[in-house]
Automatic annotation (TrEMBL):
GO terms for biological process: transmembrane transport. This is ABC transporter permease subunit. Belongs to the binding-protein-dependent transport system permease family. CysTW subfamily. It comes from Mycoplasmopsis anatis. Keywords: Cell membrane, Membrane, Transmembrane, Transmembrane helix, Transport.
Length: 298
């Protein structure tokens, strides 16, 4: 019984990964499934074809992809700038009231329904800019709408890391003769890069996937609108496979860079130990280091 329980515990992670990735693999396979004569996507295997991939940019989906990319970039820039300044201002103020206010006001939009947010944005845009015409895409409106939608998520991601920043680094940079702005970029901005990357990913996901706010506030065609209009078509699976490949390669690159950084840090640490023990004169008696294998025997 104990052996069975041990095998279950060891295979638990692989079972969870199987539940996650098996549908993705099946979806990738079905991108090569031929649709019906009416263009309807078939959930049962029909015939192998590349037609779904060759027609992926038909019916205005190329314009929708370009709009989604531009929307993701602009939204990321706006949201990252505002949220970065906001969390740094809270960090510098050290005010409990301001911190509580930021937490409460940023958490409320996270649980607020998107349709309520969309209606509120429409009312605001109508008040300041008037009713959007049918021949106007209203790209500016959808950028502002997506910025409002993703800003709470950005603050939620950046705030915890910002609170752990060591302000001594900023002061030390200024003592070295750098200006406040340059010191801020060399210390705080560099420190916040992981949160900035995650925020940009969230903005990109929302820009490509959102339907309610995009459709309600503007007439801009995006992949999110193309995905939810009419019946489901196989091109959506093709875009999903492309996104999956990007995620896999992105994770592989991240893991490779992280492992390289760990090895470099380990070698630096070993060299420091060697130098320190040589200075003490007891290197041969106390520490034996194998620099090739990166092992230390005491």
């Amino acid at each position: 019984m104990s052996k069975i329980w041990e095998s279950i515990k060891r295979s638990y992670v692989f079972i969870i990964l199987g539940f996650v990735y098996i549908p993705l693999v099946v979806g990738a396979i079905f991108t090569f499934n031929k649709s019906s004569d009416k263009g309807t996507y078939l959930t049962s295997w029909s015939k192998f074809t590349f037609n779904n991939w060759t027609t992926i940019f038909n019916s205005g989906r190329d314009i929708a992809l370009i709009n989604s990319i531009i929307l993701a970039v602009l939204t990321s820039i706006i949201v990252i700038t505002i949220s970065l300044i906001s969390v740094y201002a809270v960090y510098r103020s050290k005010s409990r009231v301001l911190r509580s206010s930021l937490s409460v006001t940023s958490n409320i939009p996270l649980i607020n329904p998107d349709n309520i947010t969309a209606i509120g944005l429409v009312l605001v845009f109508t008040l300041f800019f008037g009713v959007i015409s049918s021949d106007d895409e209203g790209f500016f409106r959808v950028v502002i709408g997506h910025a409002v939608m993703t800003l709470p998520y950005a603050i939620f991601l950046m705030y915890p890391r910002s609170e752990k920043f060591n302000n001594n680094l900023f002061e030390a940079s200024m003592d070295l003769g750098y200006s406040k702005i340059r010191s801020w970029f060399k210390t705080y901005f560099i420190y916040m890069i992981p949160s900035i990357i995650m925020t940009s990913v969230v903005c990109c996901v929302f820009s490509f996937d959102d339907f309610i706010i995009t459709r309600t506030t503007s007439n801009t065609p995006t992949l999110g609108l193309k995905l939810y209009e009419g019946q489901f078509e196989a091109w959506a699976l093709c875009f999903g496979v492309i996104a999956l490949i990007i995620v896999i390669f992105g994770n592989a690159i991240y893991i490779g860079i992280k492992n390289k950084h760990i090895k470099r840090s380990k070698k630096t640490w070993l060299k420091k130990i060697i130098i320190k023990n040589k200075q003490k004169g007891n290197f041969e008696n106390t520490v034996e280091l194998n620099l090739r294998g990166g092992e230390m025997d005491v």
